[in-house]
Here is the input.
Amino acid sequence: MNVAAWFGADPGRVGALIGFLDRAREGRLALLVERETASVFGPALVRTLSLVGAALLGLFVGGMLVLATGLPGIGLVVTVLGLLVSSAVVLIHGIPLLLDTDDAQVIGHWPVTARDVGAARMLLLLRGVLEATLAFATVPCAVLLFVGAPRVLVGVVTAGAVVAQAVLVTALLALALLLLRRTFGRRRAQKIVGAAFFVVFFLGATVMPTLADRAEASGAGPPAWGWALLPLFWCMVWPVLFETSWAVGAGVALGSTFGTAALVLLTVRSIAGGGRADRVEARRSSDTRGRIRWLEILLWPWMPGIRGLVPRRLVVAHLRDDWRVLLRLFHAPLMFVVVIVGPLHDVGPLAIVADRDGFRWFHLFVIVMASVGVANMVALVSSSQRRASWVLVASPVAHGPWAAWQRGMARATSVPWAVLIVLGLHVAAGSTPWRVVDDLVVVLLTLEVAVRGIQRVQWRAPFSLDPSFVDGRFVAASVLSSMTVLPATVAYLAFVHAKFAWAPPLTWAMLLLAVVLLDRSARRAEPMTPTWADA
Amino acid sequence: MIETRGLSRVYGAVRALDSVDLDLPSGRVVGLLGPNGAGKTTLLNIVTTLLAPSAGRVHVDGIDATRDPLEVRRRIGYVPEHGAVYEGLTADEFVEMAGVAHGLDLDLIRARVDRLFDHFELHEARHRRLGTFSKGMRRKVLVSTAVLHDPRVVLLDEPLDGLDVPSQDRVIALLRDLAADGRGVLLSSHVLEQVSEICDHLVVLAEGRVVWQGDLVDLRARYEGLSVREIFRELTVGGESRARRLADLLGDAV
Here is the structure.
């Protein structure tokens, strides 16, 4: 625990705090599970599943590296994916560990310094990040030991880069989280971080194939030196630099190691700088009246008159409450533009399609996009749903307009993903325009069935369930289902449709029937009524 | 026990504490009274080192709280009003964490926790997570945490809030025992009847200033014939404050 001393904290106190804070975090998760007796996902199981997921991703990447034997720059793929894994873990664990805390109120008057608590929380976070990053990177780095050029060295250097990068990204993101908390307060900071999580996936899914393709194509280091000035990228480019220039590579590796150490120390010291209670929460929130008016005007055509007042207000509250929804609204079209416009300038994922070697990266990209698309849709339909349900059930207003709005939002943000999946599959495979239209219909109908199905389940979920637990469970279910259903759908579109002429009309008919049945079921549904036990 | 000189705290344009001079004795249960926004919690936050004063000095058990906050924290026990705890920890774990933070030996912690949980009848719930506790049960855990390390000074913000009558009696008995043992006890509340029952020395704050400090007996003698509620009203809404309120309400008519 001497690391704590580097941060200016007391190692003994930090050691004790780590144990208790870890138990407090796990206990809090366990409380959520206890409140929902049907759940089987305890904190230990969630942790194990996360590590297994990271290891499976590592196994997949390791397998791809074996196929790509001898290609220069493949170490870069591992470091970039390592960066994504580390960032995602920081954002997931960062919320309970750094943002959703009451340290000043709970133990601010105990004889521990803010630096002790900050160091304990940082080390806990770092432990989680390193566990997941190593679970992911072990297999790819082991593969690189044998297939790298030069052998052994690329594997060792890549492992060093991934670990150094994980430490650095933990420190920098932790600093960012705490600055957000100090600036915006706890609740708003949590919303911003929730949104950032999707940005990381977006960037990762967009940048990773492009970077990999460039590294393959150039075979001589990073495409430009400008971004290598950033310390985070120093770590990332170690493997590529070592392959091309030993002297430059060693210099950058040493520089980034010392740079990382200095930045981490600086970060932790500044995190723990203040020893006083956080007063940000007491700040008045900004005036949102103007924004409400604008949104209400925009919503008027869909929810007109006095009858539309409650649904309109609900939508406004929903949008104001959940920044992730707004972010999805913006980043779905943005994603579309990047993908469609990018090839015109020889950048972006579709540009890779022209290259036969790039196809395998693009295929991975399509699967990732499909998974993110479904998670996005599920989260959108379930987000803030519980609070809306309570308001609707307490008012003499039909929930039809609200439900329709939700479906509209889900459709609007899902269309770019659907188009992307179909275009990606068929442009890469060199298919006809008719096949693109045909499969687009299948994908859109599947999305419609998914939206209506999820919505139907959500509306009937018991009121007594904890809202955050329901949201979390739906997101987990969506991730699990996207890992199985979507790759199967992609495979179906790519192979079954191509082989059998009867497959498209039959699929259309079955999906339409499912939409009609779900619609009838929704019309027959009785109004939601919470029981006394729920209240 | 607690000594302040010229203690002030400013939040933007608001002066929450204005040159507060206090000498709070040990061996007494001191009540801190005042209407909402009088500066009670700000004063407690400064004494417990959670907040830095804008001006002035505060000494706790002879230690300067602004220069050596860690030493002050070792000598105090505090029950905050909001009752924040780590909900994922059990009652046992939370109190043990407090003991470890105060540098106590684990055996000593366990022996004291046993006695305190006996006193507050928390034995059956001690292995339950605090997230499942009622407000009153949490309050009893916090009182246990505050006295576990045998502090020189105990500060409590609304300590009886949420407690049933038998539990209130147990807390009151504990506070009286601590004071009788020569420790300082400062209790903040806006429930006048409780304060007048428990405390023998009073500090009354209004608009960030001390409007009364002294023994309860002296206060009663000075305002003979008035109830505690009437005395409190006279102290906190009397004189200039009352005139200012009327002027604010009625404008030129006053």
Summary: The domain at 2-253 of chain B is CATH 3.40.50.300 (Rossmann fold).
